[in-house]
Structures are given as C-alpha cells and as structure tokens.
Amino acid sequence: MADSPPPVLALREVSKSFGAVRALREVSLSLIAGEALALAGENGAGKSTLVKILSGVHRPDAGRLLLDGEPVEFHGPADAQAAGVAVIYQEPTLFPDLTVAENIFMGRQPRGRLGRIDRRAMRAQAAALFTRLGVPLDPEQPARGLSIADQQLVEIAKALSRDARVLIMDEPTAALSGNEVTRLFGVARSLREQGCAVLFISHRLDEIFDLCQRVTTLRDGGHVADDRIADIIPDDLVRRMVGRELGALFPKQDAVPGEVALQVRRLTREGVFTDVSFEVRRGEIVALAGLVGAGRSEVARAVFGVDRWDAGSVQVGGRALRPGSPAASMALGLALVPEDRRQQGLVMELSIERNIALAGLAEVRHGPLISRAAERVRAADWAQRLQLRHRSLADAVDVLSGGNQQKVVLAKWLARQPSVLIVDEPTRGIDVATKAEVHRLLSELAVGGIAVLMISSELPEVLGMADRVLVMREGRLVAEIPRGTATEETVMAAATGIGGGGA
Amino acid sequence: MPADRFSLLRRWEGLILILLVAVTTWASLGVDGFANSSNVSFLLLDVTEIALMALTMTLVIVAAEIDLSVASTLGLSCAVLGWLWNAGLPIEAIMPICLVAGALCGALNGFLVTRLGLPSLAVTIGTFALYRGLAYVILGDQAVADLPPAYTSLATATLGPIPVVTLLVAVLAVLFVVILHATALGRAIVALGSNEEAAYFAGIRVKRIRFWLFVASGAMAALASLVFTFRYASARADNGGGLELAVIAAVLLGGVSIFGGRGTLPGVLAAVLLLGVVRNALILADVANEVLNFVTGLLLVASVLAPNLGAVWRRRTSPPLEGSLEGKSAL
C-alpha cells in the first residue's frame, strides 16, 4: 500500500469507548479510490460506531483519521461531508413534501438573480445526476411515496452532487427486493469505476461477495482480518465474524405434518391481495416467498387481525376467526412476530420482562393484580430457553442487540404457547450466529407440533427451512413448491413471473 | 447504567417530594399562619378538584392523549346541577345525572379521538369551548346558591385538620395508583402510550382503552364539580374556569411525559401538593398574584427541562445501540 496513492480515507488504530463499554479497540481500515470495501461483523461488533466516526458523528478517543494520507479531524457531520464523505442509510430521511430535486439540493440550491432559487437549473442538474446514475427518476416528483430503494438513490444523487469521494452504505439492502438490489449494485459499481471509494455493510454474505473487492472484519470492537474477496469463501468470513465454528445455519429437522392448524380460504383485501388460499399443518414450516411488495406481510397482518379483509375466511384449529381483532386471533392460538420489531414487536422503553409479558397480561395475573413474580418467572424461563444475552431482565429492551431483541419478541409470543406461529422476516438484520439459533428454534417448534408460517425475503432461508414454499406475486398466490423441488430458480421464476411461474 | 432510565425517573419524583417537604418546612417556619390547622384544611380543600382530575389526567397523558376539556366539563356539570335543582329535582337524583353528563362529555371526546382518528389536542380544544358554552346556555349567568346545607357543610367538614373530601381523594388515589401500577389495564395504558402499534400487535384493545379513559376523565370532572359546587355553595356556569391548566401543570411537574408512556401517580400527587403549598404560602406571605403565576410557571418549565437535561447527559455517556440509530439522523 506504500507504493500506491494513499487511501482516500483511512482509520489508524482508532479506539472509542462509551462509558465502560469499549466499542472500538485500535481498529484500522483503508478506503481506496475505485474499490469497494465490505465491513463485516456481527451485531455489536462495532460497525455502526466505525461508520459514525467516518461520518463525523463521533470523534475517536485515540488513533488517527487520515484524509488523502494527511491527519484530519471531523468536528461534526458537516466536516465529513465537506471532505467528501457521504452515508446512505438503510432508511433515508428525506423531506416528504419537497420534490426529489429540492431534496438533493437542500441548503445548496442553485441561485438565480437576486438570490432566488433557480428552479430550472436545479431540475436540470438533478436530471443530469440521475442520467449519470442511469436511473429513471423524475426530479419533480415529491419524495413522499418513493420506495425505500428510490429514496436511497436520491441520497446517492445528493452525495454525487456534493462530489462525494467516499460512499458509505450502511445496510442499504435490508429492505430492498432482488431487482432493487441489482439496480443499487449497478449504481455502486459505476460510482466505484468513476473513482469513488465505497464502504459496504450488509448481513448478507452473498452481497458482500457480489459487490466488494476487499473485506475488513470486526469482532467485539476489535479488528480481526483484512482479506481480498477473491482469496476467501463465505465460510471463511463467517468463521472470522463469529470466531468459532457454527452449527449448520439451517438445522431443519424432519417433521411429520399433522392436522390442519391454519386454513386460509379465498382471502381478499381490495387493492392489496386477492383470492389467497392455503393451509398450514401442525409440524410444518411453510414459507411465504415473493418480492417485496408482493403482499406477503399484508396477508399475515390480515390473518392475525391487525388489518381487515374484504372477503374470504380464516380458520384456526377448525374454528372461524373473527376478522380485524388481534385479541380474538390470539385467543384461538395465533401468534405473529411482526416485520418491524422495533416499531411493531417491542415497546422499546419497557423492560425485557414487561415486553415478554405484554402479550399475555392475563396469564401473569394474580387476582386483579399483575404478579411481578409470575412475570419474572415467565421472562426468566424464556430468556433461558432462547439463550437471551442480557444483564438484567429489568433492563429496558433497547439496550439489547437486534438479534436479542428479536429473541424477546419470540419469547413474548412463545410464552403464550401458540398453535400457529407466523414469523415475518424472522432474521432480518440480525447476526449470523443468532440467525442459526432462530432457525434451530423454528425447526424445534415445528417438530413440537406448532404450525409455522414464515415470510422471508432471503432465499437461502426459505429453501433451507421450509417444508413447502408458497410464492406470491402482485397480491396473488401463484405457486406452491414442495421442499424437494424448491430451488432458487423455481422460486424466483414464480416470484417474478418470468419463465413459467412454477408448479 | 441500563436501569438508570427508571432510577432517574424515581429521582425526579424523589426531587418533587423533597421539594414538597422543603417548601412545607420553610413555610411552616417562615410564613405566619401557614402551620395552623385551619390553614392546612384550607390548603387541602383548595387542591381537591385539581387532585381528582389529575388522577384521570395522568392516565390520559400516559396513554399519549390529553384532555383540555375537563374544566369545561366541570362547568357544564355545575350548570346541569343548578338547572335541575331550580327545576325542583332532589339533589340525590341530580348527582348521578351530573356524573352521567360528565361521562357523556368524555364519551364524545373519546368517540372523536378513537373512532374518527382526530388528535385529542384539537378535539378537546373544541369541546373545551363547546362544553363551557353549553353550560352558559343551560344556566346563563345566574348563580344557584340555595343548595342543601347537609351537602354544603359536608363538603367543608373536617376530621381534625383533614377535610372529609380529602379522604375521598385519598381513596380514589389509592385505587388509581393500583390501576396504573399494578394491573393489566395499567400495563396496557403504559404500553400503548409508549408504542401504540406494538401494543396493538400484542392484542391490546388500544381504541377501547383510550375511549374509556376519556369517559373516566369526564366522569371525574363531574365528580370534581360536585365537590366544587358544594364547597362554594354555588353552582355557576363559569365554575372552575382555567382549572384544566392547573391540572395538566401538576401532572407534568409530577414527571409524566407529555409524549406518553412514562409517569407515576405518586409523583403527580406530590406535585399537586407542591403547587398547592407554594400557592398557599405565597398568598399568606402577601406576594402579588403576578409573582405567584411566575413561580408556578418557573416550576413547570423546570419540570419539562430537567428530565430532558438528564436525557442529554445520558446520551453522552452511554454507548450507542447497534442498529438503533440506523436510518436516523442522516445529516
């Protein structure tokens, strides 16, 4: 590295502590022009802290930040932006009521005479940016209503308009569909070829191997390894991240399907999904696959009663479900681990034990009063069964890592001993080791006689875990593929409607 | 560090309690006429209506709603009482009618908020004017003063220095403390005030609970109107004007988050007393009314400021949470 030009932006033995917690310990990293670097590590490894140091949100306690080989200090995000560092977050924060062009040039609008904003120039410049990115976005469109993928592209255009030389993408693909990921990667590659340094963070290893040339791995705040992607295989990377051998990532056990536990007949919610019929038997794991926006989560929400439906029926254990009432669904043995655990699954300010008790308040009662002892026992029992890593059950749930938060949501529902468990993206945004634990748990639950309906956007998860794969496309159920014939090709063909459409 | 969110809250309520003791001690030693039994009775009587309405208001604000119409509901209930008394109904029949009228006022608020999805701030600003206006329509500007002495004397009667109505407050306070802090309903109120969506996903009947909280708030305002009317032996349409702000001030000073999801009733009750003691002591010390309002305002600003200062301090010293900041603070 000494011969070539210095890295655009580099960290040298950077440390950062928060109180007693050492978030980063002497971590070094180099971002080189024209190269995409992946940052790998489990939740809690220090990736977010590192991004915040690069983007000027945090200042390191020790170590140096080098810009073009020269020491530099960022006193705030504005300094980092001025130095050409741009960050694309998983969920961008645009001004919803302004147009795309206005969002891009917020605070730096091209000025015309008398200092008035030159809208025409702004529009033209925005259009030029999108041409350069090769995406057909309308600069005059309001930001409200843009998909997350399009919002990210607006953020990238904003970065380009600032002549960003370093593009940091912090889990940008977590909420994107396959096509959107492909488009985002196309943009990232062309920026890299134009001389940008890219830092890419993702929990999906295939994406890291697809996009990046090098990978830096962190574990517990420390620097583990720098590798050239060409030199390693995914298993190597997992080993570096976890620091030990993993059990199988998809420990699916065979289960004998029992009686029908969940039966959905001709369910329709106008404009959202149409004529959806399927059944899930006890002991089965059925995956609901499809592109983002195909209507999978919406079906789950309607079945559970969070949303209403317009036609059709749902039966749980042979008994008809009253529509539009989560409480009624729960009484029949239905449980839903929702898509967005922070917003729908947990009350972040409440303690771990209170979150676990929340779906079963009637079960921790002693007469008219809540029994704190019963609540504690219920939480402790499930925390142990799910190997929850926590200090005290009285801690607010927001101190836990994403994977452990998901375990709390699972505990909350499993403690009710449901007969049908619906899990919506059960492993989104959680680390590899916890993922394997969640998969093992789902498999054990199915063997224990629970009917599991799993919505997942990760094909390996769908293929690895499901006894049957149901595929949705544009609000309709278009295919049912048994485990034996489910492959990436058959599922994707059905999901996209290209090449036959499956069984 | 993890539990300090809760201990900090306890500390805030502890602070209010310490302040209450300190101010009371100071007033007992330094203000003539404060520490005698008739003044103590007067002080306790004086905060009765605020304390009653603060009980339900606490639940409403913890549920991330607000009810600005309580004092107007009180006035409307007073007007109904005066009107029916003039019409010759026995007082024993009138009192339950007043409570029902208050509950109906709350039910209208609750309907507009939960069924039509309107924000409670806007709804209750509207009904704040509506109910008071209705009170004037019913009773005009007359004062009905010939109320039965049995009730008016009971409203000011004392056992030692303790007014009888304070016992009523105490019983209801215990009931509400138990409801908020030890029942499934209370747990559900805290959860839905903190994160309505997650509460709904957990099977909590969010709308139904909110609706009944407004009903309870209206009924409690009517109960307060009975105490108010008998205490002053006067039913007027303008009874209790401005009281809603005193109630909300006490609730916020007691450490309840205006954003919902956080707060305890012991803190609120301490704040009700603190505001009452300060007011009483300053009046006895011949401090001008303007200064009095200034001091009340100062306490309120402090109450809003202090927990936030705590939060800023916490943010600087605690580790960031992996994942919790994704997608926020893009700039």
From TrEMBL, chain A:
Membrane topology: Peripheral membrane protein
Assigned keywords, A-Z: ATP-binding, Cell membrane, Membrane, Nucleotide-binding, Repeat, Sugar transport, Translocase, Transport
Single GO molecular function: ATP hydrolysis activity
Main location: membrane
A GO cellular component annotation in the UniProt record: plasma membrane
Subcellular locations according to the entry: Cell membrane
Residues in ABC transporter domain copies: 9-245, 256-499
Coiled-coil boundaries: none
Protein name: Ribose import ATP-binding protein RbsA 1
Protein source organism: Acrocarpospora corrugata
Automatic annotation (TrEMBL), chain B:
Superkingdom: Bacteria
Membrane-spanning intervals of the chain: 40-61, 68-87, 93-113, 120-139, 159-190, 211-230, 242-260, 291-313
High-level lineage: Bacteria, Bacillati, Actinomycetota, Actinomycetes, Streptosporangiales
Localization of this protein: Cell membrane
GO cellular component, one term: plasma membrane
Pfam families cross-referenced by the UniProt entry: BPD_transp_2
InterPro entries in the record: ABC_transp_permease (IPR001851)
Main location (coarse class): membrane
Keyword terms, alphabetized: Cell inner membrane, Cell membrane, Membrane, Transmembrane, Transmembrane helix, Transport
PANTHER family given in the database record: ABC TRANSPORTER PERMEASE PROTEIN YPHD-RELATED-RELATED, AUTOINDUCER 2 IMPORT SYSTEM PERMEASE PROTEIN LSRD
Membrane topology term: Multi-pass membrane protein
Chain's gene name: rhaQ
Record's protein name: Autoinducer 2 import system permease protein LsrD
Molecular-function annotations in GO: transmembrane transporter activity
